[in-house]
């Protein structure tokens, strides 16, 4: 992978972390032993490039935004100063992380996963101007829930806030014009 591509990925990573107001930038680590393309574990975002679809270049960005959202969820559990999640949602996050369902029918219906998928969709829509599509493993009901969650993020993050974080990270979106 060229340095230009790695720099682009890095600036995207910093942008999303800044937008989420992560206290610490999670380490980004290559790991060909994980069973998925991307995972968040023990303060690290792990990537297995062998698991990424070859015909979907935006999948990497969607996966990174998704995993960084998990980092944010964990940060919120550990912070007394967060104001995004309600106490009930924090309890749900804690319960789902303690009893995590890594795959199968209930995986995508977990609150933490819907939140992460919705955030990732919001980022892809906002940065690249592209509507997310999902493979056949997603039901229409799951897709609708993700779309609804993504729309919620439009009310949380203003275009100005997104633009400011992009400028901080020196991230240039490919498709959307923020001028």
Quick summary of this structure?
The protein has six helices and three strands.
Shape: globular
Sheet with the most strands, sense and barrel status: 3 strands, mixed
Number of E strands = 3
Mean pLDDT over all positions: 90
Order of helices and strands: HEEEHHHHH
The number of helices is 6
As a percent range, the share of helical residues equals 40-55%
**Low-confidence region ranges:** none
Structural class by SSE content:
mainly alpha
- Tell me the distance between the termini: 31 Å
- Rg, rounded, reads 16 Å
Lateral strand order in the biggest sheet: 1-3-2
Beta content comes to 5-15%
List keywords for this structure.
single chain; mainly alpha; 3-stranded mixed beta sheet; 3 strands; 179 residues
Folded structure, characterized:
The chain is mainly alpha-helical and 179 residues long. 52% of the residues lie in helices and 7% in strands. The chain contains six helices and three strands; from the N terminus they run αβββααααα. A hairpin with a 2-residue loop joins strand 2 and strand 3. Helix 1 (3-19) packs parallel to helix 2 (59-78), helix 1 crosses helix 6 and helix 2 crosses helix 4 (111-128). The mean pLDDT is 90.
Write the layout of secondary structure elements.
Blueprint: H1 3-19, E1 27-30, E2 38-41, E3 44-47, H2 59-78, H3 87-98, H4 111-128, H5 140-154, H6 159-169
Parallel strand pairs: 1-3
Antiparallel strand pairs: 2-3
Helix pairs in contact: 1-2, 1-6, 2-4, 4-5
């Amino acid at each position: 992978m060229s340095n230009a591509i790695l720099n682009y990925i890095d600036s995207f990573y910093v942008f999303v972390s800044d937008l989420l107001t992560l206290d610490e930038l999670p380490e980004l680590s290559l790991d060909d032993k994980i069973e998925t393309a991307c995972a968040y574990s023990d303060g690290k975002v792990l990537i297995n490039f062998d698991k990424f679809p070859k015909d979907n270049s935006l999948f990497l960005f969607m996966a990174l935004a998704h995993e960084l959202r998990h980092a944010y969820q964990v940060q919120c559990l550990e912070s007394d100063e967060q104001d995004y999640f309600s106490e009930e949602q924090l309890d749900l996050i804690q319960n789902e992380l303690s009893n995590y369902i890594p795959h199968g029918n209930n995986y995508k219906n977990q609150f933490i996963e819907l939140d992460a998928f919705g955030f990732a969709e919001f980022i892809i829509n906002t940065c690249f101007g592209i509507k997310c599509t999902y493979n056949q493993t997603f039901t229409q009901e799951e897709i609708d829930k993700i779309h609804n969650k993504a729309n919620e993020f439009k009310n949380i993050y203003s275009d100005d806030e997104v633009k400011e974080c992009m400028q901080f990270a020196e991230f240039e979106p490919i498709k959307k014009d923020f001028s």
